[in-house]
Amino acid sequence: MMGFGGGGAVTWIKVVVAVLVIVEYGGSGAWGQNSQQGWLNIDCGAEVDYKDGGTGINWVSDAPYITNGKVGTITGYSSFPEAKTLRYFDQPQGKNCYKLPVISNGVYMLRATFFYAAYDNAPNPPTFQLAIDGTVYDTFTADATIGQWREVFFVAQSNVTFFCLVRDPTFNSVPFISAITLKPYTGKYLGFNAYFADKRLIRTVQRVNFGGNNLIRYPDDPFDRYWFGQGTNTSYLQTATPLKVLNTTLPIVNTEKNAFYVPWPVLQDGLQLPAPGNMTLLANGGTEGDSDVYSLAEICLHFAELDETANITSRGFDITVPRPGGPQVFYENAFNYTDNFTPIPMPFTANTWYFWDLIDFGPSSAITFSPSPNAVRGPIINGMELFAITEPADLTLTTSGNALALEAIKVDMKLTAWTGDPCVPVPHNWVNCTLNTKTQQLEVTVVDLSGYNLSGTISPSFAKLDGLISLSLANNALTGPLPDLSTITTLKSLRLENNALTGPLPNWLTSLKSLTKLSVQNNNFSGEIPSGLLAANYLQFTYQPGNPDLIGGTSKPSSSKSSSKVGIIVGAIVGGLVGLGALVALVVCCCMCISRANARKTAKSQGVSLSEIAGAKAFSFAQIAAFTNNFKRKIGSGGFGPVYYGRLPGGQEVAVKVADSSSHQGAAEFHNEVELMSRVHHRNLVPFVGYCQEGANQILVYEFIDLGSLQDNLFGTSSRNAEAFNWNRRLNIAVNAAQGLEYLHTGCVPGIIHRDVKSSNILLTSKPEVAKVADFGLSKLTSDENATHVSTLVKGTAGYLDPEYFQTNFLTFKSDIYSFGVVLLELMTGQPPINTSPSSRSAGSLVEWVRQNLSAGDIDKILDPTVKASKPNMDGLWKVAEVAMICAEPKGVHRPTMSEVVQELRAALALEVGSTEDNPSEVSSNDVSAIFSGSMPTGR
Questions:
Q1: Which end of the chain is more exposed for a tag (fewer CB within 10 A), N or C?
Q2: Which residues contact 214 (CB under 8 A, 6 or more apart)?
Q3: Which of 215, 189, 184, 223 is nearest to 33 (CA)?
Q4: Catalytic residue among 62, 756, 775, 864
Q5: Whether 756 is catalytic
Q6: 269: closest CA among 289, 290, 252?
Q7: H or E stretch at 763
Q8: Is the separation of the CB atoms in 560 and 536 below 8 Å?
Q9: Residues 766/541, Cβ–Cβ less than 8 Å
Q10: Are 769 and 169 in contact (CB under 8 A)?
């Protein structure tokens, strides 16, 4: 099946997974259009704009497009002036983004270029991720011996695109970049538009000039694509007999019907088999270490007959393309086509085969060329382009209002080093974001700038964050009066303590009906305290010490005093209670089954409809059975029941939790769980997909998380690379889990107590920087927005159970804090919370064992060998130990809030990152022998 150019247009027919287009070339036409109109070529680190004398390309400094980073220099790439400087990012930001001008809905090609040359003398080359707006599309590892590039085609979502270098916590590397090229895409590739309509990005894997020796680029390619030469020793082609190079200086016929615009220098070179024989094209080109499999790919093969003695019958061959249903065969004859197949005399002509929707294209994929029976010459090939098609992009961005407000705040508060969308692909360290299910956009719900050394006045643009729940500007050097924040009607917590703020406490504070915590102590406020602040019994209002000129009332101390640190020796005195609580918890777990059985009898009589729950997809039992293949693959079990693997018709992988007979809930309780999950959305919480309640069947469907639980990776059968599971990775997991729990506590109205925080309920994803909290089957909503606890029968897991909860039956947010402290100790020690083996180094209660060792000042004794081997920053490590122990205090009043835990863990992570990145602001490397055009850089 093939389509032919005719009547000045190119037509084509799609054949399931392959499309063939035969097109013709002529003289000048498009090749005379060497304009750089619309191009933006950025030399990262360059001080001035300039014109490349060799190519004629105009380069500009990156200063207008980035507000942070440091400049490094290298030598050894004389043909590439843009390689002389680079910009690197050694600060703790999770991402560093270039702000690039585009036209909304326009299609662009972006190429990032990297000349590493070991400029930093680091023991290992850096690894980091590349993202367009909120979509991470590639993971990049530098090579000190060659130049490298990454090219992607995308559709702009607004008039600004953020191109971001995203830290990969697994490798703890310093991102860098040498150059960025941004060009409007002018429709050179058939089939791309269908992918763009499906919200996909298209990544260039490689472009090859068979028979060529050097890099072909602008001006030889008017669109400045990079074509890398491959001679007779190419690893892309396998043959039984030697290949031969064919070249010509004659023009290639182009009637301007070709949609690919392959440049003449590519078509004027080729590799052929002089005599009939088979030729095999390898998908990965034999690139060292390349084992990538592209779930969806497109390949373009370019042919031109270059033998002047050839005729219409001398070189014909079949092209066999792999596909899931079996190979598909096409016939190719590169000799002189016109629209009606009538041979025409020289000069030469060319044609292109274009195959799209190639499934699982990888190292084992091969395209074979087999000569036809009458052929007297073997196959020929001149050029090849391979593209990988990403999964549909996540185009969820921050609301424009929030994004603009954050940009103004960053300017006002001198935070311009934090670049890009505030929420994606990873949020700023001091921001939490929540998906608005109505608008399907992200809203900023938490801003925590405590201890960021801020000075000056508070930005009035905070008032534009109309979905903000928590704002903390504590522990800075801020001055001046409070701006009007009365528009933030959702605000629950406002922390301003330990600054130098002045002026009155404004009356608008009393209009914030959601406000439950206001801390203004240790400032210089003056005047009358609004009576509404003193009279509100729901408000935890702290204004002393400090503020000597405030009038009215007396000090209203916090109802829950906590410190970010605790004396470990003091903890040892009261720690014995914890050990007792852990032992009693074992008994509790045994009793839970009896309690559940009694509750089940009552629940069966209740009938609750789930049909009105918004955002939760209802599945029938038949559908569940179908996409789990009749519950064939069991992947775990929990308090709710067994968990099975499934795949929805659209391809989404899911985990299916089925209530077993011993833990079956009543309809009302099940309704509560479904309603809860349908409204909770956070990047660090496992997404809820849907449910089934049909007859006696109660089933919950969640997104499948691919790397298992933290418990599996610490103690179970999941194989893990010790280096990859180092302290940096563990600390990132801790921060992620804490952020998820913080959202449950403060980001939901009313707040949600998880009730069963443990390492098996923290799931690890394929992205090292993202972990998710799971299993809300035991979660408990507080009865109203102002409640601090709920009275409930004790439920939980031995070793993690809050001893105060066990004694009083009062479940509080601090119960989750205790359990999370135990998880932190698991991460540090690699030991379970209760170890019944007498030979174990942590026999008995983990909390008690750690407390005894830390009270003696011996942190080294408790550390997992993998943690020791990763050489952690000791200040950060002690900070985590202190956080864990204060979380595990026997009494809840002595434990911190989850927001305070998040703040301390982020500080520990910043210490860990900073300890390995003490690089000078100017660095250089000399005498790089490898040159960009002489190697075969990859475009993956």
A1: N
A2: 229, 933
A3: 223
A4: 756
A5: yes
A6: 252
A7: strand 762-764
A8: no
A9: no
A10: yes
**Residues in CB range of 145: below 8 A, 6 or more apart:** 928, 929, 930, 935
Q: How far is Cα 699 from Cα 711, in angstroms, rounded to an integer?
A: 24
- Split the chain (940 residues) into runs of 10 and give each run's mean pLDDT: 23 28 34 70 97 94 95 86 95 92 94 95 92 91 93 92 88 92 83 84 94 93 92 93 92 58 90 95 62 84 87 87 83 60 53 82 87 92 92 80 92 91 89 85 92 93 94 94 95 94 94 92 93 82 90 50 34 41 41 37 39 68 92 79 87 86 65 76 88 87 86 70 76 94 84 88 81 70 45 65 82 92 96 72 79 86 91 92 93 90 91 57 30 37
pTM > 0.70: yes or no: no
The secondary structure element, H or E, covering residue 853 is: helix 846-855
Locate tokens 């702000």: which residue?
99
Kindly report whether the peptide bond that precedes residue 219 is cis, defined as omega within 30 degrees of 0: yes
CA 622, 628, 629 angle in degrees (round to 5)? 85
Residue 561, pLDDT score: 35
For residue 432, what are the β-bridge partners?
446
* Half-sphere exposure (Cβ direction) of 98: Cα atoms closer than 13 Å: 32
Q: At what angle do helices 576-603 and 846-855 cross, to 10 degrees?
A: 160
Strand partners, 773: 685, 762
Tell me the CA distances in angstroms from 98 to 57, 65, 95, 922, one per residue in order. 21, 5, 10, 21
Rounded CA gap, 183 and 100, in Å? 11
Write the CB contacts of 131 (distance below 8 Å, at least 6 apart in sequence).
Answer: 95, 137, 162, 163, 164, 166, 425
Cis? peptide before 251, omega within 30° of 0: no
Amino acid identity of residue 439, one-letter, is T
For the chain, how many residues are written? 940
State whether the Cα torsion 923-928-934-939 is positive or negative: negative
Amino acid at 328: Q
Whether the Cβ atoms of residue 863 and residue 841 lie closer than 8 Å to each other:
no
The pair of structure tokens assigned to 5 is: 């150019």
Domains identified in the chain and CATH numbers: 3-389 (2.60.120.430), 400-551 (3.80.10.10), 572-914 (1.10.510.10)
Q: Which helix (H) or strand (E) holds 882?
A: helix 874-887
78 to each of 25, 81, 142, 740, how far by Cα in Å?
A: 34, 6, 20, 50
Burial of 463 (0-12, 13-18, 19+ CB in 10 A): middle
Q: Is residue 534 a contact partner of residue 509, using CB atoms and an 8 Å limit?
A: no
Question: Which residue, 271, 227, 264, is CA-closest to 249?
Answer: 264
485/506 Cα distance (integer angstroms): 10
Distances (CA, A) of 425 to 6, 131, 725, 764, 769: 46, 7, 22, 17, 11
- According to DSSP, residue 185 is labeled -
